């Protein structure tokens, strides 16, 4: 049966080659969409490394001057006295935005770039960041000849490998001072749920009366159920203590929702384009098979006359398309397996490759079968008498 199908496919090799090319291209597009969706889900299901719930971001808008450090300190102290506030700490980088700050750590002449943030001593309590080894920085680091540094797990592994990072001293990229690793946290993703895992570190911010170290944001954790009306009271405190600034207050949960919507737009657009492409392919396959059945009325009628069953005709028509689809998928799989070697899309993990190929293959085979059902049904209705009257 398979040999007969291959002969029939070969006899119509020109038109079947175009069909196989269309199926192969559709497979590759579908493979890319499935891999992207699986990658997005894998990132989404990985813990963020912090808790954003019941937290407000207060961004300072204005020009930083050294005396603003003392004003910021007093503003934070005043907000901590509010009964609705659990924590109020400083953090330089915004969450759920595309802003970033990087530095380079060098260990054994091997440079490693990582994203960094500057935060106050109790920020890990506010954000509920789990410290898995060592400690968070604190008053015990004041006056040392180093700047304390907390790394996430990936950064520690990349910089130090199998060595213990705690207590290691690393030079600043510009040679201004030395870092000392005091703690390790879980992987931390500042930009949000769909941000890929990467190397990250925290530097210490010290509350002072005068400082050239700019701090552009306060993070405020509220007690559960606190109404948004508290923002009016917060603004009064901020305006009183920081008269030179304007302020932007936002809920991190709302910022996360906005980030998710924007991040999913490319994936949703790609999925919609893939669906449109598959619909076009389906209509093309349906039309070609329909025409194929009409042109082969005499052949099919002859088969019925010599004893072929309706089931045999169904298997023949559907089997031809499924066989072509299988060959096209095999070609597409071979091409897809070359993608990691090109390096164009980074390092695609093996489980994503397997999931992408499996998902795309399943969809293409189901699509091919569905498209063959109606033409096969038409072929099943052909009788020997129809073949005799066909012109």
TrEMBL record:
Residues 272-384 form the ABC3 transporter permease C-terminal domain. The lineage of its organism: Bacteria, Pseudomonadati, Acidobacteriota, Holophagae, Acanthopleuribacterales. One of its GO terms (cellular component) is plasma membrane. Keywords: Cell membrane, Membrane, Transmembrane, Transmembrane helix. Coiled coil: none annotated. InterPro entries: ABC3_permease_C, MacB_PCD, Macrolide_Exporter_MacB. Residues 37-226 form the MacB-like periplasmic core domain. Pfam families: FtsX, MacB_PCD. One of its GO terms (molecular function) is transmembrane transporter activity. Belongs to the ABC-4 integral membrane protein family. It comes from the Bacteria. The chain crosses the membrane at residues 21-41, 264-290, 311-337, 357-379. It is found in: Cell membrane. It is a multi-pass membrane protein. Its main location: membrane. This is ABC transporter permease.
């Amino acid at each position: 049966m398979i040999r007969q199908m291959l002969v029939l496919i070969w006899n119509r090799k020109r038109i079947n080659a175009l069909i196989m090319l269309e199926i192969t291209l559709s497979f590759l597009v579908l493979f890319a969409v499935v891999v992207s969706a699986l990658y997005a889900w894998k990132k989404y299901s990985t813990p963020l490394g912090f808790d954003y719930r019941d937290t407000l971001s207060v961004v300072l808008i204005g020009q930083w001057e050294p005396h603003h450090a003392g004003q910021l300190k007093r503003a934070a102290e005043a907000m901590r006295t509010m009964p609705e506030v659990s924590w109020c700490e400083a953090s330089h980088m915004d969450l759920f935005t595309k802003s970033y700050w990087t530095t380079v750590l060098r260990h054994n002449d091997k440079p490693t770039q990582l994203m960094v943030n500057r935060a106050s001593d109790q920020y890990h309590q506010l954000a509920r960041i789990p410290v898995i080894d060592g400690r968070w920085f604190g008053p015990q680091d004041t006056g040392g000849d180093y700047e304390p540094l907390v790394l996430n797990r990936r950064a520690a592994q990349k910089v130090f490998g199998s060595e213990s990072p705690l207590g290691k001293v690393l030079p600043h990229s510009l040679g201004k001072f030395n870092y000392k690793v005091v703690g390790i946290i879980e992987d931390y993703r500042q930009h949000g749920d769909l941000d890929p895992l990467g190397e990250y570190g925290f530097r210490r911010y010290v509350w002072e009366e005068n400082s050239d170290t700019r701090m552009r944001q306060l993070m405020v954790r509220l007690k559960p159920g606190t109404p948004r009306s508290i923002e009016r009271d917060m603004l009064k405190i901020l305006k009183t203590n920081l008269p030179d600034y304007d302020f932007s207050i936002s809920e991190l949960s709302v910022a996360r929702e906005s980030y998710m919507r924007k991040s999913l737009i490319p994936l949703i657009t790609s999925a919609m384009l893939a669906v449109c492409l598959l619909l076009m392919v389906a209509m093309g396959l349906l039309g070609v098979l329909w025409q194929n059945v009409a042109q082969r009325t005499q052949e099919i009628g002859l088969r019925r006359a010599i004893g072929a069953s309706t089931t045999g005709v169904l298997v023949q028509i559907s089997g031809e398309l499924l066989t072509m689809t299988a060959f096209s998928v095999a070609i597409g799989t071979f091409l897809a397996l070359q993608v990691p070697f090109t390096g164009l899309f980074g390092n695609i993990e093996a489980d994503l490759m397997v999931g992408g190929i499996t998902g795309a293959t399943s969809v293409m085979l189901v699509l091919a079968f569905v498209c063959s059902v109606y033409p096969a049904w038409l072929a099943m209705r052909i009788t020997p008498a129809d073949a005799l009257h066909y012109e």
